Amino acid sequence: MQRNADRQTASTSEEPTTGSQTDEAATSGSATGEETTNRDDSGSIAKKGTAIVAARGNQAPVETTEIRQLTEAAGYRVVDEFTQVRPRDPGTNLGDGKVAEIARRAEVTEAMALVVDGELTPTQTTTLAARMPDETRVFDRYRLILAIFAEQARHRRAQLQVELARLRYDLPRIKEAADEGLLNRRTERGTPYYDVRDRIDRLERKLEELPTPAEQFRERRRQEGFDLVTLAGYTNAGKSTLLHRLADDLSVTDASPAHPDETGVAEIEDRLFKTLETTTRRATLDERPTLVTDTVGFVQDLPHWLVQSFSETLSEAASADVVVLVADGADPVGEFEAKLDVSLSVLDEQDVARDDVVVTVNKIDCQSSADVERRRRIAAERADSVVTMSASEGTNFDRLVDAIAARLPSRRETITLPNGDEAMSLLSWLYDHVTVDSVEYTGKTVVITVDGRPSVIAKALARAEAIAATAEE
Ligand SMILES: Nc1nc2c(ncn2[C@@H]2O[C@H](COP(=O)(O)OP(=O)(O)OP(=O)(O)O)[C@@H](O)[C@H]2O)c(=O)[nH]1
Ligand SMILES: [Mg+2]
To answer: 460 CB contacts (<8 Å, ≥6 apart)?
Structure first.
């Protein structure tokens, strides 16, 4: 009961029409502690029908590319767009005339959504919804992003994070709605505002208590001698494409995965936010066993509270040996530079050392060599290791692997063993776990030179000592 009351308070100010099924599921699932999602099996967002986007700017032309892409990422087909170059109208954001025009168009196109680029106040949302046809839901930019995240969240932890992000978004709005008299209902436990604040507190505690399988998994894998590489960067830059190229065996899914993410095959699509949770695949880089993790793409103008809610995926970067920052070389140069700066500062915030970052200028197949060079220089001003490449065509892929390998922690050692079965068994283990630079047979002994993660080399040396000790007995 309480849940419904909460739900209503959260939706009164923001969602004039009811939330989607998956929105409901994500909310109720976390409130009751059940694992419930109404996703379809493919994990994709169901097509929801048509949408109209509207954007306001201070001068023409008003940019609509990203809001259109976001709307498509949410599962809508954009049928029309309206732009407005006028100061913000306090009542409707867009102005009465424009709203009337949009309403007529929404009627004709049977639009299921009106997406306004920017932030709407609760009053504006209510007013806009009242003027649109009944079936047209009204979203602002952040509500739309939250809806995408809610639908894509597969695991319990991600679902809780999404709900927390939604509530953080709702809280100031609920307060504003209450102040404006749009909301004066009290629930049995208090005011809607305090109910939501309580839920935020509860969720934060719950998230703190939940074990983070990703962390445990990483620690174990590190012990086992895997190097950890994380792919980061803006949405649509080509991270998942690169993961496909780096991974060992994408067609095979592990029957008993050590971690739920490990079965995942990262989806590649020319759509924003295709990857909303991390996916990890095995790869062999310079003969070293590596785990490569694909992460959620950054998006321009993502508010801080939203970034915070997805800190877990960013923390993948912090615990990696190497972070490959994938930059979209097909972006216009100004945008390329701006996004690179934001990406690097996000990594800085996560305490990723610049030395551990390899910047890839991706999609060079889309640019002339002069344009590629311009972008390479911009990247080289900011990071020591820069590779220009095409993930989809494989151009310079080897250079990227070399650049990553050069940054993996390593220790070089020469191991001398008495020749025999034991030595051969250790040698085959070494081939699996480190780079074997040379093997020399000198009759009674085998001299092996290896290069690999310090923890693995230490393990190999201990095994070699044990073999030598047994041979002496
Ligand atoms: N021309 C060209 N297109 C590429 C290249 N690499 C990736 N793409 C395309 O760019 C689009 C986005 O690629 P993804 O790999 O899904 O991008 P992503 O960074 O994983 O995106 P998110 O999961 O949304 O963060 C797809 O259409 C890819 O085919 C490239 O080197 N050249
Ligand atoms: Mg992806």
So the answer is: 413, 415, 426, 429, 430, 433, 434, 450, 452
